[in-house]
Protein backbone atom coordinates (compact mmCIF):
# COMPACT_ATOMS: atom_id res chain seq x y z
CA UNK A 1 0.00 0.00 0.00
CA UNK A 2 1.04 3.62 -0.51
CA UNK A 3 0.40 6.42 1.96
CA UNK A 4 -1.00 9.38 0.06
CA UNK A 5 -1.89 12.93 1.13
CA UNK A 6 -5.34 14.05 0.03
CA UNK A 7 -7.51 17.09 0.57
CA UNK A 8 -10.99 15.68 1.09
CA UNK A 9 -12.55 19.17 1.21
CA UNK A 10 -11.62 22.76 0.41
CA UNK A 11 -10.29 24.77 3.35
CA UNK A 12 -7.12 25.29 5.36
CA UNK A 13 -4.36 22.74 6.07
CA UNK A 14 -6.72 20.96 8.51
CA UNK A 15 -8.42 19.34 5.47
CA UNK A 16 -5.26 17.41 4.64
CA UNK A 17 -5.26 13.72 5.52
CA UNK A 18 -3.01 10.73 5.00
CA UNK A 19 -4.82 7.77 3.44
CA UNK A 20 -3.72 4.36 2.19
CA UNK A 21 -4.15 3.46 -1.47
CA UNK A 22 -2.93 0.80 -3.84
CA UNK A 23 -0.04 2.43 -5.72
CA UNK A 24 -1.10 0.71 -8.94
CA UNK A 25 0.92 -1.12 -11.57
CA UNK A 26 2.81 0.84 -14.20
CA UNK A 27 1.10 0.60 -17.60
CA UNK A 28 2.69 1.16 -21.02
CA UNK A 29 5.29 3.94 -20.82
CA UNK A 30 4.85 4.26 -17.05
CA UNK A 31 7.16 3.77 -14.09
CA UNK A 32 6.53 3.02 -10.39
CA UNK A 33 8.68 5.26 -8.18
CA UNK A 34 9.33 4.93 -4.45
CA UNK A 35 9.32 8.57 -3.30
CA UNK A 36 12.18 9.72 -1.06
CA UNK A 37 11.34 13.46 -1.03
CA UNK A 38 8.53 15.65 -2.36
CA UNK A 39 8.87 19.40 -2.80
CA UNK A 40 6.29 21.74 -1.27
CA UNK A 41 5.20 24.76 -3.32
CA UNK A 42 2.59 27.51 -2.88
CA UNK A 43 0.69 25.88 -5.76
CA UNK A 44 0.04 22.92 -3.45
CA UNK A 45 -2.03 24.91 -0.96
CA UNK A 46 -3.59 27.06 -3.70
CA UNK A 47 -5.04 23.76 -4.99
CA UNK A 48 -7.27 23.21 -1.93
CA UNK A 49 -7.65 26.61 -0.24
CA UNK A 50 -10.01 27.86 -2.93
CA UNK A 51 -7.50 30.18 -4.63
CA UNK A 52 -8.03 28.18 -7.82
CA UNK A 53 -11.75 27.46 -7.39
CA UNK A 54 -13.66 25.01 -5.24
CA UNK A 55 -15.42 22.59 -7.58
CA UNK A 56 -16.66 19.71 -5.36
CA UNK A 57 -16.44 17.34 -8.34
CA UNK A 58 -12.63 17.56 -8.15
CA UNK A 59 -12.47 16.20 -4.59
CA UNK A 60 -10.60 14.44 -3.14
CA UNK A 61 -7.52 16.25 -4.44
CA UNK A 62 -4.07 14.73 -4.54
CA UNK A 63 -1.24 17.18 -3.95
CA UNK A 64 2.35 17.71 -4.98
CA UNK A 65 3.90 18.49 -8.35
CA UNK A 66 7.45 17.22 -7.82
CA UNK A 67 9.33 14.38 -6.16
CA UNK A 68 12.59 12.48 -6.17
CA UNK A 69 12.87 8.75 -5.65
CA UNK A 70 13.93 5.32 -6.82
CA UNK A 71 12.40 3.37 -9.71
CA UNK A 72 10.80 0.17 -8.41
CA UNK A 73 9.17 -1.18 -11.57
CA UNK A 74 8.87 -0.29 -15.23
CA UNK A 75 5.82 -0.94 -17.43
CA UNK A 76 5.93 -2.00 -21.09
CA UNK A 77 7.67 0.62 -23.30
CA UNK A 78 9.16 2.36 -20.25
CA UNK A 79 12.62 1.06 -21.12
CA UNK A 80 14.44 4.38 -20.67
CA UNK A 81 14.52 3.66 -16.92
CA UNK A 82 15.27 0.51 -14.93
CA UNK A 83 14.54 -0.61 -11.35
CA UNK A 84 17.03 0.99 -8.98
CA UNK A 85 17.48 4.20 -11.02
CA UNK A 86 17.41 7.39 -8.96
CA UNK A 87 15.08 9.89 -10.61
CA UNK A 88 13.37 13.26 -10.31
CA UNK A 89 9.68 13.37 -11.25
CA UNK A 90 8.20 16.63 -12.55
CA UNK A 91 5.64 17.69 -13.59
CA UNK A 92 3.50 15.15 -11.76
CA UNK A 93 0.26 15.26 -9.82
CA UNK A 94 0.05 13.62 -6.42
CA UNK A 95 3.74 13.61 -5.44
CA UNK A 96 2.84 13.68 -1.72
CA UNK A 97 2.89 9.90 -1.43
CA UNK A 98 5.36 7.17 -0.76
CA UNK A 99 4.74 5.53 -4.14
CA UNK A 100 3.90 7.14 -7.45
CA UNK A 101 3.06 5.79 -10.92
CA UNK A 102 4.15 8.32 -13.55
CA UNK A 103 4.80 8.45 -17.30
CA UNK A 104 8.52 7.90 -17.91
CA UNK A 105 8.52 11.18 -19.89
CA UNK A 106 7.98 12.97 -16.57
CA UNK A 107 11.26 11.64 -15.15
CA UNK A 108 14.85 12.78 -15.45
CA UNK A 109 17.84 11.04 -13.85
CA UNK A 110 18.84 12.37 -10.41
CA UNK A 111 22.52 13.24 -10.31
CA UNK A 112 24.46 11.32 -7.65
CA UNK A 113 25.77 14.58 -6.21
CA UNK A 114 22.31 15.88 -5.35
CA UNK A 115 20.71 14.67 -2.11
CA UNK A 116 17.07 13.57 -1.96
CA UNK A 117 15.68 16.71 -0.34
CA UNK A 118 17.33 19.09 -2.81
CA UNK A 119 16.35 16.87 -5.73
CA UNK A 120 12.74 16.80 -4.51
CA UNK A 121 12.57 20.58 -4.23
CA UNK A 122 14.50 21.59 -7.34
CA UNK A 123 12.24 21.31 -10.34
CA UNK A 124 9.06 23.33 -9.93
CA UNK A 125 10.92 26.45 -8.84
CA UNK A 126 13.83 25.75 -11.19
CA UNK A 127 11.82 25.25 -14.37
CA UNK A 128 9.69 28.31 -13.59
CA UNK A 129 12.86 30.33 -13.12
CA UNK A 130 14.34 29.18 -16.42
CA UNK A 131 11.10 30.17 -18.16
CA UNK A 132 11.04 33.59 -16.47
CA UNK A 133 14.68 34.37 -17.27
CA UNK A 134 14.08 33.42 -20.91
CA UNK A 135 10.81 35.39 -21.13
CA UNK A 136 12.45 38.55 -19.79
CA UNK A 137 15.38 37.96 -22.19
CA UNK A 138 17.93 38.32 -19.40
CA UNK A 139 21.47 38.49 -20.76
CA UNK A 140 25.01 39.59 -20.05
CA UNK A 141 25.31 43.23 -19.07
CA UNK A 142 21.67 43.57 -17.99
CA UNK A 143 20.62 44.87 -14.61
CA UNK A 144 17.69 42.72 -13.50
CA UNK A 145 15.33 43.35 -10.61
CA UNK A 146 13.97 40.18 -8.97
CA UNK A 147 11.00 40.67 -6.65
CA UNK A 148 10.95 37.97 -3.94
CA UNK A 149 14.56 36.94 -4.54
CA UNK A 150 14.72 35.00 -1.25
CA UNK A 151 11.82 32.73 -2.27
CA UNK A 152 11.99 29.32 -3.90
CA UNK A 153 11.62 30.66 -7.44
CA UNK A 154 13.34 33.99 -6.74
CA UNK A 155 16.52 32.29 -5.49
CA UNK A 156 16.65 30.23 -8.68
CA UNK A 157 16.01 33.25 -10.91
CA UNK A 158 18.72 35.19 -9.08
CA UNK A 159 21.34 32.47 -9.59
CA UNK A 160 20.40 31.82 -13.23
CA UNK A 161 20.44 35.53 -14.10
CA UNK A 162 23.80 35.88 -12.35
CA UNK A 163 25.16 32.91 -14.37
CA UNK A 164 24.04 34.68 -17.55
CA UNK A 165 26.23 37.63 -16.66
CA UNK A 166 23.47 39.94 -15.45
CA UNK A 167 23.69 42.14 -12.40
CA UNK A 168 20.83 41.23 -10.04
CA UNK A 169 19.05 43.49 -7.59
CA UNK A 170 16.77 41.41 -5.38
CA UNK A 171 13.96 42.36 -3.03
CA UNK A 172 13.55 40.56 0.31
CA UNK A 173 12.86 41.24 3.95
CA UNK A 174 15.98 42.71 5.61
CA UNK A 175 16.51 39.47 7.60
CA UNK A 176 17.15 37.71 4.26
CA UNK A 177 19.55 40.25 2.75
CA UNK A 178 22.66 38.27 3.63
CA UNK A 179 21.14 35.27 1.85
CA UNK A 180 20.62 37.42 -1.26
CA UNK A 181 24.26 38.48 -1.20
CA UNK A 182 25.26 34.79 -1.04
CA UNK A 183 23.07 34.15 -4.11
CA UNK A 184 24.80 36.94 -6.02
CA UNK A 185 22.26 39.77 -5.69
CA UNK A 186 22.38 43.29 -4.34
CA UNK A 187 19.60 43.30 -1.71
CA UNK A 188 16.88 45.87 -1.32
CA UNK A 189 13.87 45.86 1.03
CA UNK A 190 10.36 45.70 -0.39
CA UNK A 191 7.79 48.21 0.91
CA UNK A 192 7.14 51.91 0.43
CA UNK A 193 9.98 53.76 -1.34
CA UNK A 194 11.02 50.66 -3.33
CA UNK A 195 11.47 52.52 -6.64
CA UNK A 196 13.78 55.11 -5.07
CA UNK A 197 15.85 52.46 -3.29
CA UNK A 198 16.34 50.55 -6.55
CA UNK A 199 17.24 53.73 -8.48
CA UNK A 200 19.82 54.57 -5.82
CA UNK A 201 21.48 51.19 -6.45
CA UNK A 202 21.48 51.49 -10.23
CA UNK A 203 21.69 55.03 -11.57
CA UNK A 204 21.98 53.61 -15.12
CA UNK A 205 18.56 51.93 -14.81
CA UNK A 206 16.95 48.50 -14.80
CA UNK A 207 16.69 46.50 -18.04
CA UNK A 208 14.37 43.67 -16.98
CA UNK A 209 12.23 42.57 -14.04
CA UNK A 210 11.07 39.19 -12.83
CA UNK A 211 8.29 39.31 -10.27
CA UNK A 212 7.79 36.30 -8.01
CA UNK A 213 6.24 38.29 -5.15
CA UNK A 214 2.95 39.06 -6.88
CA UNK A 215 2.15 42.29 -5.06
CA UNK A 216 0.75 45.31 -6.89
CA UNK A 217 3.66 47.23 -5.36
CA UNK A 218 6.14 44.95 -7.16
CA UNK A 219 4.44 45.30 -10.53
CA UNK A 220 3.83 49.02 -10.28
CA UNK A 221 7.49 49.54 -9.33
CA UNK A 222 8.51 47.33 -12.27
CA UNK A 223 6.79 49.43 -14.92
CA UNK A 224 8.08 52.60 -13.28
CA UNK A 225 11.64 51.30 -13.59
CA UNK A 226 11.65 49.55 -17.00
CA UNK A 227 10.58 51.21 -20.22
CA UNK A 228 10.08 48.01 -22.25
CA UNK A 229 7.18 46.10 -20.66
CA UNK A 230 8.00 42.98 -22.70
CA UNK A 231 10.99 42.63 -20.39
CA UNK A 232 8.85 42.56 -17.26
CA UNK A 233 7.57 39.08 -16.34
CA UNK A 234 5.34 38.07 -13.45
CA UNK A 235 4.65 34.54 -12.25
CA UNK A 236 2.38 35.57 -9.39
CA UNK A 237 0.01 38.41 -10.34
CA UNK A 238 -1.78 37.73 -13.59
CA UNK A 239 -4.53 40.27 -12.93
CA UNK A 240 -2.29 43.32 -12.45
CA UNK A 241 0.23 41.95 -14.95
CA UNK A 242 -2.43 41.80 -17.68
CA UNK A 243 -3.68 45.31 -16.83
CA UNK A 244 -0.15 46.64 -17.17
CA UNK A 245 0.65 44.69 -20.34
CA UNK A 246 3.65 42.81 -18.96
CA UNK A 247 4.44 39.13 -19.57
CA UNK A 248 2.26 36.84 -17.46
CA UNK A 249 3.72 33.36 -16.99
CA UNK A 250 1.97 30.24 -15.76
CA UNK A 251 -1.33 28.42 -16.08
CA UNK A 252 -3.63 31.27 -14.97
CA UNK A 253 -5.93 33.16 -17.38
CA UNK A 254 -3.95 34.76 -20.22
CA UNK A 255 -0.71 33.24 -18.92
CA UNK A 256 2.04 31.59 -20.97
CA UNK A 257 2.48 28.13 -19.38
CA UNK A 258 5.88 27.69 -21.04
CA UNK A 259 5.31 23.94 -21.15
CA UNK A 260 8.11 23.14 -23.60
CA UNK A 261 10.77 25.49 -22.21
CA UNK A 262 10.10 24.20 -18.69
CA UNK A 263 10.24 20.51 -19.70
CA UNK A 264 13.40 21.07 -21.69
CA UNK A 265 15.05 22.81 -18.71
CA UNK A 266 14.88 19.81 -16.36
CA UNK A 267 18.08 18.02 -17.42
CA UNK A 268 20.13 21.22 -17.36
CA UNK A 269 18.80 22.09 -13.90
CA UNK A 270 19.66 18.61 -12.63
CA UNK A 271 23.16 18.94 -14.04
CA UNK A 272 23.70 22.43 -12.56
CA UNK A 273 22.38 21.43 -9.13
CA UNK A 274 24.25 18.11 -9.16
CA UNK A 275 27.55 19.83 -9.88
CA UNK A 276 26.99 22.52 -7.25
CA UNK A 277 26.64 25.38 -9.75
CA UNK A 278 23.04 25.92 -8.65
CA UNK A 279 22.19 25.90 -4.95
CA UNK A 280 18.90 24.54 -3.67
CA UNK A 281 18.47 25.75 -0.12
CA UNK A 282 16.28 23.40 1.91
CA UNK A 283 14.74 25.40 4.74
CA UNK A 284 12.78 22.65 6.46
CA UNK A 285 11.88 18.99 6.06
CA UNK A 286 8.73 17.41 7.47
CA UNK A 287 7.47 13.87 7.60
CA UNK A 288 4.62 13.17 5.17
CA UNK A 289 2.27 12.76 8.14
CA UNK A 290 3.16 16.32 9.23
CA UNK A 291 1.99 17.83 5.96
CA UNK A 292 -0.49 20.21 7.61
CA UNK A 293 2.27 21.62 9.83
CA UNK A 294 4.52 22.00 6.76
CA UNK A 295 1.81 23.92 4.92
CA UNK A 296 1.09 26.19 7.90
CA UNK A 297 4.78 27.12 7.98
CA UNK A 298 4.79 27.73 4.23
CA UNK A 299 1.62 29.80 4.20
CA UNK A 300 2.94 31.93 7.07
CA UNK A 301 6.19 32.52 5.16
CA UNK A 302 8.21 31.24 8.13
CA UNK A 303 10.65 29.12 6.12
CA UNK A 304 13.47 30.53 4.00
CA UNK A 305 14.30 27.95 1.34
CA UNK A 306 12.34 24.97 0.13
CA UNK A 307 10.06 22.94 2.35
CA UNK A 308 10.38 19.23 1.61
CA UNK A 309 8.26 16.26 2.70
CA UNK A 310 9.90 12.92 3.39
CA UNK A 311 7.80 9.73 3.51
N1 LIG B 1 3.22 31.08 -12.65
C1 LIG B 1 3.93 30.01 -12.37
O1 LIG B 1 4.20 29.18 -13.22
C2 LIG B 1 4.43 29.83 -10.97
C3 LIG B 1 5.36 28.84 -10.67
C4 LIG B 1 5.87 28.76 -9.37
C5 LIG B 1 5.39 29.64 -8.39
N2 LIG B 1 4.44 30.54 -8.72
C6 LIG B 1 3.95 31.51 -7.71
O2 LIG B 1 5.01 32.41 -7.45
C7 LIG B 1 4.96 32.82 -6.09
C8 LIG B 1 6.30 32.57 -5.43
O3 LIG B 1 6.54 31.18 -5.34
P1 LIG B 1 7.75 30.64 -4.45
O4 LIG B 1 7.72 29.17 -4.49
O5 LIG B 1 9.00 31.35 -4.79
O6 LIG B 1 7.24 31.14 -2.98
P2 LIG B 1 8.07 31.39 -1.66
O7 LIG B 1 9.25 30.47 -1.60
O8 LIG B 1 7.09 31.34 -0.56
O9 LIG B 1 8.65 32.86 -1.79
C9 LIG B 1 7.86 34.01 -1.73
C10 LIG B 1 8.76 35.19 -1.51
O10 LIG B 1 7.97 36.38 -1.55
C11 LIG B 1 8.60 37.33 -0.72
N3 LIG B 1 7.63 38.28 -0.19
C12 LIG B 1 6.74 38.10 0.82
N4 LIG B 1 6.02 39.22 1.01
C13 LIG B 1 6.48 40.12 0.09
C14 LIG B 1 6.14 41.46 -0.21
N5 LIG B 1 5.17 42.11 0.43
N6 LIG B 1 6.83 42.07 -1.21
C15 LIG B 1 7.80 41.43 -1.88
N7 LIG B 1 8.16 40.15 -1.63
C16 LIG B 1 7.51 39.52 -0.65
C17 LIG B 1 9.22 36.56 0.42
O11 LIG B 1 10.44 37.21 0.72
P3 LIG B 1 10.80 37.72 2.20
O12 LIG B 1 10.36 36.61 3.13
O13 LIG B 1 12.29 37.88 2.17
O14 LIG B 1 10.04 38.99 2.39
C18 LIG B 1 9.45 35.16 -0.15
O15 LIG B 1 10.80 34.87 -0.28
C19 LIG B 1 3.78 32.07 -5.46
O16 LIG B 1 2.64 32.89 -5.52
C20 LIG B 1 3.60 30.89 -6.38
O17 LIG B 1 2.31 30.34 -6.35
C21 LIG B 1 3.96 30.67 -9.97
Describe the structure.
The chain has 311 residues and is of the alpha/beta class. It has two domains: 2-114 and 280-310, Medium-chain alcohol dehydrogenases, catalytic domain (Quinone Oxidoreductase, Chain A, domain 1, Alpha-Beta Complex); 125-248, Medium-chain alcohol dehydrogenases, catalytic domain (Quinone Oxidoreductase, Chain A, domain 1). Helix content is 31%, strand content 26%. The chain has nine helices and 16 strands. The protein has helices spanning 42-49, 116-135, 152-163, 177-183, 194-201, 216-225, 238-244, 259-274, 291-299; strands spanning 2-7, 16-21, 30-40, 61-62, 67-74, 86-89, 99-103, 107-109, 143-147, 167-172, 185-189, 208-211, 232-234, 247-248, 282-287, 306-310. Strands 3, 5, 6, 7, 8, 15 and 16 form a seven-stranded mixed beta sheet that branches. Strands 11-10-9-12-13-14 form a six-stranded parallel beta sheet, sandwiched between helices. Helix 2 (116-135) crosses helix 3, helix 2 crosses helix 8 (259-274) and helix 5 packs across helix 6 (216-225). The two termini are 13 Å apart. The protein binds NADP nicotinamide-adenine-dinucleotide phosphate. NADP nicotinamide-adenine-dinucleotide phosphate (NAP) is lined by residues 41-43, 46, 124-125, 128, 147-148, 150-154, 171-173, 176, 190, 212-215, 218, 235-236, 249-250, 301.
Amino acid sequence: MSRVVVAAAYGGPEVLALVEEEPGTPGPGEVLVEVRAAGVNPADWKTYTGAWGSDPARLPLRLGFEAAGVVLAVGPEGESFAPGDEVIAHPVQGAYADHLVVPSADLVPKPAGLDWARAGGLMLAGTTAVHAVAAAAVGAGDTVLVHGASGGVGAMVTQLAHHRGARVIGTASPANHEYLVDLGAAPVAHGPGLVDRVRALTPSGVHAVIDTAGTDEALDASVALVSDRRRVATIANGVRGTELGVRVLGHGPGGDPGTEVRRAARRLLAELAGSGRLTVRVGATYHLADVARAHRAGIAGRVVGKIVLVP
